[in-house]
# Entry
Amino acid sequence: MHIDENGLLQGARYIPSPNFDARPEGCAVKLIVIHNISLPPDQFGGTGVIELFTNQLDPSEHPYYETIKDFKVSSHFFIRRDGELIQFVPCTQRAWHAGASTWCGRERCNDFSIGIELEGSDTTPFTDAQYASLNQLTAAIRAAYPIQDIKGHADIAPGRKTDPGACFDWVRYRAGISEA
# Structure
């Protein structure tokens, strides 16, 4: 598994999102941000996340969708419960995943980070397949970019975000990436 010169992960399903723009000139990717998402909330396997990231979410399909119908968000990657990897934005571009955020005194983490969404919630353990895909993806990102740190969304937007949540096993994840 590797990321090509266009910022695309070979082997991932690519579904282009319109919700991205150019990274600032000379801004190197230094951070990986891990999130969780499920749409509708706490329901897995549907097309809600894909529809949200591609601006095709139908607000009449679920009451929660009405509250997020105008959101313009994306992530570079989405890892389904079965480990499937979907890419929405090339790594060379700025995905809109972190919002108001700060890391090591630098604001606007979208400028210099790669966002990875795990299909899940703060209250549901992630699957073996997700950890396996996340470890492989992390290795590919680290091989392509000078990554200095890996944080959860809650770490870069404290008080505003809680993901990837208490059910994300950081010890397991870090052990897996050190072996990769």
The radius of gyration is 15 Å. The longest helix spans residues 128-144.
